[in-house]
Amino acid sequence: MALVTMEQTRVLSGEISRRLRVATMSGELRRGAAAGVLIFGAGVVLRTLLEIIFARAMGPTDFGAYSYIFAWLSILAVAGGLGIPYAFVRFIPEYEVFKNYAGQRRLARFARVAALTVGVAVGVLGGAIILGLRPSGVDHVSIILGMASVPVLALLTVQSELARGFRRVVLAYLPLLVLRPVFTILFGLGLLVTTGHLTAAQGLATGLLAILVCLVVQRARVHRLLAASSQADPSDNISDASTKERGEHRSWLDVALPLLVINVLAAIAMRADVIVVGALRGSEAAGVYAVAARVALLSTFALEALNTIVAPTISKLFYAGDHRGVQQLVRNAARVTFVTALVATLLLELAGTRSLAVFGSGYTGGMTALQVLLVGQLVNASTGPVTYLMIATGEQNLAAIAQGVATALFFALAIPLTAYAGLIGTAAAVTVARATVNIWMVIAAQQRLGIRSFVI
């Protein structure tokens, strides 16, 4: 009887511990999700305001050149991080569970060095490619400023993803999504008041300055996160760290390189449409399409907001063995994001061309392209954080393959469709490619993980 009682006590104790852990994570998730929604909501408003100001001040041609270089910058900055920042969401929670605080600090050091060195190399290479492919309306100064921003933005991404790995949502995304557009707007308005006009090069210069300011503002707080882990585990020293880090490089890169592929391909999926339009139709058409794409993104801000905290929480629940918690989290996230996207889509449809005319009268020609893009965004929202689910549970290789297929499909469709049908053809290619990768990942998550990431 005593043995049975002890066994019952052990089981009861384990169940209580599990419930307390889930309750703690649920509270953490609610707080993080609320902060994420607020920050992303503010970020969407500010980024949209920034583009309204720039689009109206520059006109379609200059704004198209600005958007073209900004698209290249966004893709190359992701490549500059070598995928390591995106591995934080996998390793930081895992190191927390196993109390490997020294490993957290070694990973952060490695990521910073990689972002700086690889970011510079990628920026130089990207500049050479853009100069060779330069469409009409894009000047040399804009290219130089855009490529100079690559390593700086890569470093800012390292800091933001590190804070995200620690589930510090405000610290992770306030500088990147709120302060960055705020400073860009302030610097841009300063130039506009001073000179009376705003060019693509001036817009990119204000963006570079804003990134530098955010990098400085965020650094001290991120450093304190790592310093706190140093106090919890003071065993790390410089000589031991260098030896351990060399042994860890392979395990980090084994995860980081597939994530690099995923995120570069995702960045291409998000930005290559503007590049294709600019290359085939010129900078003015790129400006019109960029405005339509920006308005379409308004429908899925809830998805991006929830992803800020959902991804690391999925990882922590998964490694803690709480399969039921992962399923509940993913399904609820899909429902929230789909309903939000549906409401936003209906509102944008009711607004019609007025949603584009806010940016200026020269952009209303992108209305049909906007409607096509909104269809793709609804499909994206209905699948929830499925790509993050695959990454956080160790299925990053499959996610990379799926994203690669979708990117290849986009280019195979976008080039002929853009040449033939203009902006509508580009939007159709984007919609098909995004639907392909998301549906693929939903099926894979069901088959490999037994988790359904769909709205119904």
Uncertain residue ranges: 1-6, 8-25, 237-241
Q: What's the Cα radius of gyration?
A: 23 Å
Tell me what portion of residues adopts beta-strand conformation. under 5%
Number of strands: 0
Shape: globular
Largest sheet: none
The N- and C-terminal alpha carbons lie at a distance of: 48 Å
In round numbers, the mean pLDDT is 80
Give, in order, the helices and strands. Answer: HHHHHHHHHHHHHHH
Helix content: over 70%
Structure description:
With 456 residues, this protein is mainly alpha-helical. The protein has helices at 2-80, 84-97, 101-133, 140-165, 169-195, 200-232, 238-281, 283-297, 301-319, 323-351, 354-357, 367-382, 386-392, 396-421, 423-449. The longest helix has 79 residues, at 2-80. Residues 1-6, 8-25 and 237-241 have low confidence and may be disordered.
